[in-house]
Amino acid sequence: MAAATTGLLATAALSGCQLLTAQAPVHTPTALETCATGRTWVLDTAALSASARTSMVERGLAVSVGVTGMQTLTWGSDFAMAFDTDLTFTGTVDGAAGFAQTQAVHGTSKGLAYFSGEIAVPRDWVEDLTVTETATQDGAPADPRFAWLPLWVNDTVGLKTTCAPDQLVLEPRQGHLVWTFHPEGWTPPAPSDPAEPAPAA
Fold this sequence. Notes:
By secondary structure, this protein is of the alpha+beta class. It has one domain. Helix content is 17%, strand content 44%. The protein contains 3 helices and 9 strands. Strands 1-2-3-4-5-7-8-9 form an 8-stranded antiparallel β-barrel.
């Protein structure tokens, strides 16, 4: 009888217990993450043209680069990063009149990009890109005169990231190529009116 009583007490005690389950840590986004993610950004092609010229010259290539087309970056709040690219890069060589070399890039690049401080670290990168290169001299086919640098984001290095409501800047930790983006639908501010000349004395 004592044994039965003990068993009943044990059962009653166990029935009153609550199972403890581990809670997943809650991630609190940093100010940088809040600014950069959960949005779609559009590449500033004029800014990339200037940056590409600087990078070419730093590598001993006297090449000016024009960038046309469009690229969008969708960076989810879950850190999924996706680029939709339709860009054409046109390079002209200093002192080589009539020569042009183009690189057309079309397709998608996607993966994850987590933050470590101000550095976005791409992971699990998948590219589905078509890259076409041509060179012409006075409009006729010609041999290439230089090798293109990678002018789009990939997962080779981390990306120093700065963000403001109207601008996102990605800069590889190695190298000086900089990608500047603006929010989808962004309109550049109208130029300010020139200052009126001071009245004559």
